[in-house]
Structures are given as C-alpha cells and as structure tokens.
Specification:
By secondary structure, the protein is of the alpha/beta class. Helices cover 41% and strands 12% of the residues. It contains 13 helices and eleven strands. The protein has helices spanning 6-23, 48-59, 81-93, 104-121, 135-153, 158-161, 179-187, 208-216, 239-248, 304-311, 340-374, 397-410, 437-453; strands at residues 128-132, 170-174, 195-198, 222-227, 252-256, 281-285, 297-301, 380-381, 389-393, 416-420, 423-429. The strands form two sheets. It has a seven-stranded mixed beta sheet with strand order 1-7-6-5-4-2-3, with helices on both faces. A four-stranded antiparallel beta sheet has the order 8-9-11-10. Helix 5 crosses helix 7 (179-187) and helix 5 crosses helix 10. The longest helix has 35 residues, at 340-374. The protein is globular and about 60 Å long. The termini are far apart. The structure holds pyridoxal-5'-phosphate. Pyridoxal-5'-phosphate (PLP) is lined by residues 75, 134-136, 178, 180, 229, 231, 256, 258-259, 285, 297.
C-alpha cells in the first residue's frame, strides 16, 4: 500500500475486519476449532495488508466468542463499547504507563480511575492504587505490601534484609480460596505448610466462628485472606466478622474481590459485602463483571508506604514527577500498556448507575438460569444464587460431565465444569454486558436438548 501512514492503513483494515466480527458476535458458534497457521518463519518480509488479512482468515475458526452474550465459562467479561474504543486508542498511542514523564495522559487517566474506583466502591479515600494485569497480580501486590508492613512492624526491613532469618509470616485462608492466592504466596516465598486453612460453610464462605481459634494458635505476623465472590458459587465471606476476628489478632486482612467487587456499586448487592471496606487490601478484576477488555486488574491498599516499599522501582534515569502519578510505583511491572484507558472509558460511559445496573442484571439473569434449571428433570442447582454464579448437577458425575461436554460441542453456548463439594457440577457465570433474557432462554433450551441427548 502506498500511504503516508502504513500504521493508519493497518489500523483501518483491522477495524473493518474487527467490526465485521463484532456484528456477528451474538450468534457466533461457541465451539471453535484449532486454527492452521503457517508452520515456518518466513525468510522475507511480507505485505502488511496480506499479513492482517491472512491472520484474520486463518485464526477466525479458533476464536472463542467469549466476548459475546452466550459465553458463561470461568468468570468472563466482554468489552464494553467505550472500553473497546479506548483500547484501540491505547494501542495506537502505545504509551508507556510506567512514569508520568513518559505519558502525562496515562498519569492523568490512572489518577482519575483511582479516585473513581475508590468512590464507586466505598473504599477508603486514601487507598493506594495499582493497575495490574489481573487479580492474580493484584493478590500478589497486596500480599507483598502486607509482608512489607507486617515485617516492618516486627522490626524487620524486608527490602534490606530479605526473608532469610525474618520472623515467619503466617497466612490464614479459607478452604475455598481461589488458587491464585496460593500462587501469589508461592511467589513470595510462603509455602503451603505456612498456610492455615479455616473451614468453609456449604456455600464456600469462610467460617468466621472458626477463624478466631485458628488465629489464637499463631504467632504474629499474620495475614488473613478473605474472599468477596467465590469463583464457583459466588458466595461472599462474612466480612465484618472476619475483620473483627482478624483485628483482635493484629492481622492484615486482604480481600480477593475478583468476582464480587463491582457489586459494591449496587445498593442491593452491596449488602452482602458489608465490612469489606474495613480490610487492609483489595484485589479487583475489571475484566470480569465490569466488562473492560483484558488485561485489567486493580490492587488497592490502606497502607501506601508498605505498598510502595513492595513494588516501587527507582533509578536515576526514571524521574518521579512531583504532583503527578507514576503508575509503575504501585505494580510489579515497569513498562506497561495504558490499561487504565479502557477502564476510564468504561466507567465514564456507564456512570455510577450504569455499573449498578450492569451487575444487577448479571445477578438477576443468574437467578433466571437457576429458576429454569430447577424445573428440569434430574437437574439440581447446588448453590444459593446470591450473585452471578450458578452451579448445577445432573444426577451423577458421569451424566453431569456428559451434559457439559455436549453443551460445549453444541455451539449455542459455553459452560465449564467444576468439582463442588465432592461432586461434578456445571458452572454458569453470567458476566457479559450483552447477555439478555433471550440468551438465557436459548441456553436453557440447549441444556435441555443435551440432557435428552445424553439420557441412557
Ligand atoms: C479470576 C479470579 C482470580 C484471578 O484473576 P486473574 O484476573 O485471572 O488473574 C483470583 N481470584 C478470584 C476469586 C477469581 O475469580
């Protein structure tokens, strides 16, 4: 192509292809196949327009329409129109969001997002905020900050002394924590044997009445990891009771709120979260219920000095700008894309009431799923549907797995499987902004069809 901006041409071409894809997204098959890519690295340069066209054509059979309304796997958000538009700008601008000198625009947008998120969710106004890839890194950052804080209180400077000879850090978790907590702890040098597990109730909520007993036996310093939104059931830990018990032991309370954080924007749903704002740190995902595209996680802490001590990068050639936000001080990465831009656009386009309406719709559609399943022969809804998650079993483990497999091959909708309280279950996560009651009814009909098809 003969142009004054080959990059603009490539973008225009990609936008045409992407728009065509998005127009068919609602009805795209949820049963993709592995694509066939060129096996060898080419020796010679290729024409850009050909590369883009070929990329699209060869990959499209393997693209899972997880951004669409009938994808209920894992906890998967789509991407809101404003967020997608902002994501394209972020790619075209290709700003480095590490330091304010590199991009005053990114510094400003992160600053606004930090204020808005804290305000929207009712978290402490002085919270330190970092924009990370997802909740796994948010959990890591928060736990690294917890370690810095607790060690410093015990007279140990982790930055200078490292962990050899440090007072042992004890970690208390619920039996139904997300596995990314274990991974984050592993990255921090905390092994499985240093983790104390508090039993959960039948919905996967930490039993606060058992927490105090576990804490009693531990030497300080202690971190308690609570959860707002179980990845399977959606259940929320009793936050006030957890914070009360932890506070009595001088523990740092971390909340993994990857699933349920945005419920705090709804007057109705926020009742379940009462007391979560009293914690010391929070891990959030914007790429789940809020429907900002990947990758978008947020970490917040009540202790900015410890947060900074855990993650800040310093070098003489990396100047901090007084009065401006240097984003990389609050995250484990240095160079990074302007991932707060789509978040900003999402919040700007939804407003406070839009976020509330979005999460309330997800949760009411989850209840619509549960009601529909309740009427099906051999289907048993396994959880109290208080959020966006539904767990359902179909008589036996074998049958449940066969139904899941049949649904996954059917192409109408996509649901995953899990093991819940010792038995197999289908997981239905209503997280996409596009999902309507019609999508739920069509998906229920598909589950019913698969139930019939797998009958012995
Ligand atoms: C998804 C999830 C995580 C991990 O989040 P990523 O964004 O995949 O890193 C952590 N905790 C819970 C409860 C989750 O649902």
């Amino acid at each position: 192509m003969n142009s004054d901006s080959p990059a603009a041409d490539a973008l225009a071409q990609s936008c045409v292809l992407a728009s065509r894809y998005l127009r068919g997204l609602s009805t795209a098959s949820t049963s993709p196949t592995a694509p066939d890519l060129a096996a060898e690295l080419p020796e010679e340069p290729g024409d850009v327009a050909d590369v883009i066209a070929e990329l699209f054509a060869s990959l499209i059979p393997g693209v899972m329409p997880s951004a669409g309304p009938r994808y209920f796997g894992f906890v998967t958000g789509g991407t809101l129109p404003a967020a997608l538009g902002a994501d394209v700008l972020a790619s075209a601008w290709n700003q480095n969001g590490a330091f304010a000198t590199m991009s005053p625009a990114v510094a400003a947008v992160e600053e606004a997002c930090a204020r808005w998120v804290v305000d929207l969710l009712g978290l402490p106004g002085q919270a330190s905020v970092g924009f990370v890839t997802g909740a796994t890194m948010a959990n890591w950052t928060a736990l690294a900050a917890a370690r810095a804080h607790l060690m410093s209180r015990a007279g140990w400077d982790v930055t200078q002394e490292g962990m050899t000879g440090a007072p042992p850090m004890r970690v208390v978790v619920g039996a139904q924590r997300h596995s990314s907590i274990d991974v984050a702890l592993r990255y921090l040098g905390v092994g499985v044997r240093q983790i104390s597990v508090v039993p959960c109730d039948d919905q996967g909520r930490m039993r606060a009445d058992r927490l105090a007993a576990v804490l009693q036996d531990l030497e300080r310093p202690v971190v308690v990891c609570a959860q707002v939104g179980n990845v399977n059931s959606g259940a929320v830990d009793p936050m006030n009771e957890v914070v009360d018990a932890a506070g009595a032991a001088g523990a740092w309370v971390h909340v993994d709120a990857a699933v349920g954080a945005w419920w705090a924007a709804s007057a109705d749903l926020r009742q379940q979260l009462r007391g979560w704002e009293r914690a010391d740190s929070w891990a959030l995902d914007a790429h789940k219920g809020l429907n900002v595209g990947y990758d978008s996680g947020i970490v917040l802490t009540r202790h900015s000095a410890a947060h900074r001590a855990a993650t800040a990068i310093t070098a003489t050639y990396l100047p901090e700008t007084p009065g401006a936000r240097d984003g990389s001080l609050w995250v484990p990465e240095s160079s990074r894309r302007a991932r707060a831009l789509p978040l900003y656009a999402a919040l700007r386009s939804l407003g406070r009431s839009g976020v509330a309406a979005l999460v309330e719709r997800q949760c009411s559609l989850a209840r619509l799923f549960a009601d529909g399943l309740d009427g099906m022969p051999s289907a048993t809804v396994r959880n109290e549907v208080t959020g966006n998650q539904v767990l359902v079993s179909f008589g036996s483990d074998h049958r449940t797995d066969r139904v899941i497999e049949a649904v996954q091959h059917g192409g109408v909708c996509w649901m995953g499987g899990t093991t819940w309280r010792g038995e197999r279950a289908m997981r239905i996560s209503v997280s996409n902004w596009m999902t309507s009651a019609d999508d739920v009814h069509a998906s229920l009909a598909e589950i019913e069809r698969c139930l019939v098809a797998t009958a012995d």
